[in-house]
Amino acid sequence: MSTLKNFFNREINGTGLYLIAFSFCLVISFIFTTTFTDYFHTRPLQLLSYLGIGLVLVKIYLLDNYNYKQLSGISILLFFSFISWRHSQSNTQSNLILYMMVFILGAKDVEFKKIVEVFYKISLIMMLGVILYSLLGIITNLAYFTPGRPIRYALGMLYPTDMASHILFLILAKCYLVFPNIKWYHYSIFLLLALFMKVVADARLSAYTTVLLVIIMFIAERAQKGNKLCKILASFYWTATPLLAFIATVTALNFDMNNHIMRKVNDLLSGRLLLSYQAFQRYGISLFGEPVIEHGSGGIKGMKMFFNQSRYFYIDSSFIRLFIIYGILMFLIFLAFMMIIAIRSTYHHSYILPAIMFVVAISCLLEQHLLDLSFNPFLLSLLATNTYKWREKNEKSDRNSILQ
C-alpha cells in the first residue's frame, strides 16, 4: 500500500511519462503485427494508442524546457506529419508517420539507453509469447507455399518476413545495449538466428542482413576501441542512408522490364522493383503523400490475396513508402533524421548508432518497417539523451543544437 502511495505522490516526471506512453504504444503496435488481430476488432486498440500520443504531447508542451524558437520548429514538424497522415488516410498504416514523429520529438531529456531497454524487454517477451501461442495452436501460425521455395512459417506474425524483421531489430537493440563489448557468443547467436530466419521463414533479406550486421558491428567495435583502419571504415557508415535511398528511388523510377539486368534483379527481389515502379506510375510524386490502396499477403485476409496474385500490390521498400504514401517532404525529413543521428555520432567518435543506421538502411531498401515503433526505436535517438558512449560535456549542446 505504501508503494502505491509513493507512486501517486511522486512528482510528474517527463521521462516516466514518455516511457509509459512508449511501452503502451509499443505493446499495441506489436499486437498489430500478429495474428491476434484476427480474433478481435482492432479499432478500439487503435483509438487507445492515441492516448499514448496524448501523453507525449503533454510532455512536449508542458514538461519539456523548449524555448519559443524550438517549440515553433517542433510544432511545424508535427503539423507536417499530421497533414501527411491526413493525406494518406486510406492506407491502413498511415498513422505510423504521426506516431513516429511524436515519439521522436518527445524523446528530449530521456536517456536513449532506457528507451532501448524497454523496447528490448517488451519486444522479446511478446515475441517469445507469440511464437509459443502459435506453436500451441492458440493463435494462427500461417504457412506460405510458393513454387520453388521452401514452406515459410510466420510463427504467429502476419507474414514470415515480419517475424524475421522483429528478430533483426531485437538483435540491433541487443548490440546497442552491450556495445562495445559484443562477445563471440553474441555473434554466434546472431548467426544462428540468421540461419533460423532462413530455414523457418525463408526471409532472405533479414537473414543476409544479419550476417552483414555481424561484420558491421565487428568493425564498429574495433573503431570504438581505437583501430585506425576500422575508424576510417566506420566513419563512412552514415553514407548508407542517402546512398541506398538514392538507389531505391532511381531504380524504381527508371525500371524497365525490357532491361535484362533490371529484370533479373526484380526476380531476385521477388518482384519488389516492379511494384515500386508501379507505385510511382499510379500515384506519382506529391508533397504530402497520397492515399495508396494496397493488397498485401499478410494475415488471414492477406492469404486470400496470396492465391490471387493478379490483385497483389504492396510497397515493401521503406524509402519508396515514404516517398509515395507520405510525400517527398516526409521522405527528406526522415532521411535527414537518419543522417543527423549517424553523422553526429561519428563526429563524436561513437560508432554504434552509425552502425545501427547502416543496418536499418539496408533493411529499409526492401522492408517497410522504418516508421513502425514495434520494429524500429532507433530514430528516437535524435533528441534523446545519448549518455551511453557519449562524452558528457557535449551531451547538452548536441541534444539541443538540432532545434536551435
Automatic annotation (TrEMBL):
Top-level taxonomic group: Bacteria
Residue spans crossing the bilayer: 12-32, 44-63, 70-87, 122-145, 207-223, 235-255, 319-343, 350-371
Keywords annotated in UniProt: Membrane, Transmembrane, Transmembrane helix
Name this protein carries in UniProt: Polymerase
Source organism per UniProt: Limosilactobacillus reuteri
